[in-house]
Structures are given as structure tokens and as C-alpha cells.
Amino acid sequence: MNRKSSCLTLGACAGLLALSLTMGGYALSADQGTSSQVQKIESAKTKADYEALAASYEQEAKTAQAKADEHKEMAKAYGKIGHLVEKHNMVQHCDRLVKNYQDAAKENLALAKLNRELAAKAKQ
Predict the structure, then answer these.
(1) Res. 52: pLDDT tops 50
(2) Which residues contact 102 (CB under 8 A, 6 or more apart)?
(3) Would you tell me the crossing angle of helices 47-79 and 90-121 to the nearest 10 degrees?
(4) Fewer Cβ within 10 Å of end Cβ, the chain: N or C?
């Protein structure tokens, strides 16, 4: 293996490690918030409770959309490295993540809408 090839392989591995740490951190933070969110859902009774849930889902949607946008940019960057893309399918990997994050954003917005409807029907 020549020096250039070694550097590219090392760079690709570093990129994958960074991506896995990012996704792992996102999953960890999601797990930490789950029990709190479950408690909020189980105890929601008032308009304010449902509005707070809706706001948290809207924030999750914004976070997911930001990650989708980030992966769009990453796909563009990987797309400029033709020999790396062909060997490792980096662009397709990023494209799949973009779709997953966009889907998550849509689902969170749907949950926010439902909670706003519950808020409208709830007692003060």
C-alpha cells in the first residue's frame, strides 16, 4: 500500500469513526431523554402539558432536519472524492441518513401537531 492510499484509507476510517460517534451520541442523548419524555406523556393533562410536549417534538424535528442538512453537505463533500465514493459508497450512506433524519423530522412534526390538538381540547 502506498502512502497516498494509506492516507485515504486512514481518512475514510477517521470519517466513519466520527460519524459513528456522532450517531452514537445522538442515540445516547435520545435514550437519556426518553424516560423524561415518557413521564411527561403519562402525566399530561393540561393545555400547558400538551403544549410543552408539542414544543419538544418541534425541537426534535429541528434537530433531525439539521442532521439531514449536515449529511447532505457531507454527501457533496464525499462526492468530490470519486475514487473513495466508488469504493466505499459514502454518498449513498449519507443519502440514506438524510432520508432517515428527514423522516424523523416529519414524524416529530406530526406528533407536535397531535399534541397541539390535545392541548386545544384539554382543560387549563
Answers:
(1) yes
(2) 64, 65, 68
(3) 170
(4) C
